[in-house]
Amino acid sequence: MENAGSALMGIGYGTGENRAANAAKAAIESPLLEMSIDGAKGILFNIVGGNDLSMFEVDEAARIITDAADPEANIIFGAAVNDSYTGEIKITVVATGFDESRRGAATMFRGGIENRTNMPSPVKKKSALEELSGPIKATENEYDIPAFIRRSVSK
Q: What is the reported pTM?
């Protein structure tokens, strides 16, 4: 999921009957998502429930989320039991790897904020090796350059 472009995050809660399906749908259709996660090439999601969380519910939620992703997507997920979530399920989804041409269509949140400005992408920093490579600047004192380098340059 590294260097995969924009990432979107959604959170969904579910209680009662069909709580896993409701939480999964709420997470992938969250108002926090500025566009659909359909076709995402990378998805990370976590399912948290109480002691009553069943493997069937985990599987049901996972199927709903993975069906929205690209068929070749890299999907990582986890499930945890937390006693404070007895009777409910919380699902957190982070999706990335979208077709950037779709991004222009996402100008309005479902909450109604219009004319949203896009944040600039982070600049890739040069690695230490990239910074060191390149031409060596001439110095006034020849002893600033190690002897083995001076010898290889003079040949």
A: 0.61
